[in-house]
């Protein structure tokens, strides 16, 4: 199985072409679209989406992730083996959420042009000419060793996210993802709040925590633990992003009662 995650959208043919390359190499492989609506060039959003999807797929799944603002530059193209399967992606930190959960077992720079779709790839579409082709060959059983040169973990680009700060009175985190509903997903994990009574402070406002979106009136703010296991801020029937004018990496403060 191969999953695909990009910021390409579906208006253009880019996603379809990548699938065509994969199917031309392995007609029987299953292709699953994780999403192609990552906000354009937003590696942080792609990191979150990939990290939170991994555990819902069978072992040995190949995850093809292309959000690649520096395509055509000297950034490396990678294949990474980890406990649950493989990552095929640019070396720009898109994989850093996954690797915070699973240690990489082998990392290969994709230097063997034999397994590219085009040995002289387009400078703007490595998704087609390198990544899709490598995913197709890998799904056929080609080993990582054949795809290129093994590199060390310390050569991986790490996507920096401000660490969570915890003390006896509060937790300070940041927004790591904003979904299509405008829900603000923080980097504060559920286990940081277990057995505690808490609420959020946003300016002069106090935002209480609830179990469901419908626990408050239409248009009201609430905090809750989302299905992904992270603290999020929402508006029943509206957008917390718009109501609070928040963006990625903005600070969120949780207080203990």
Characterise the protein shown here.
By secondary structure, the protein is of the alpha+beta class. The chain folds into two domains: 2-155, S-adenosyl-l-methionine hydroxide adenosyltransferase, N-terminal (Rossmann fold, 3-Layer(aba) Sandwich), CATH 3.40.50; 165-256, Beta Barrel (Elongation Factor Tu (Ef-tu), domain 3), CATH 2.40.30.90. It is 19% helix and 30% strand. The protein has helices at 14-25, 43-53, 96-99, 126-139, 144-147, 240-244; strands spanning 2-6, 31-35, 61-66, 77-82, 85-90, 106-109, 149-150, 165-166, 170-178, 184-189, 198-202, 205-208, 221-225, 230-235, 251-256. α1 packs parallel to α4. The protein is elongated and about 60 Å long. The model has no long low-confidence stretch (mean pLDDT 96).
Features:
Elongation Factor Tu (Ef-tu), domain 3; 19% helix; 2 domains; 30% strand; 257 residues; Rossmann fold; single chain; 15 strands; alpha+beta
How would you summarize what this structure contains?
It contains 6 helices and 15 strands. It is α+β, with helices and mostly antiparallel strands and 257 residues long.
**Cα radius of gyration in angstroms:** 20 Å
Q: Which geometry do the CA atoms define? A: elongated
CATH architecture of the largest domain: 3-Layer(aba) Sandwich
* Low-pLDDT runs: none
What is the name of the CATH topology of the largest domain?
A: Rossmann fold
Number of helices: 6
Mean pLDDT: 96
Number of strands: 15
Number of domains: 2
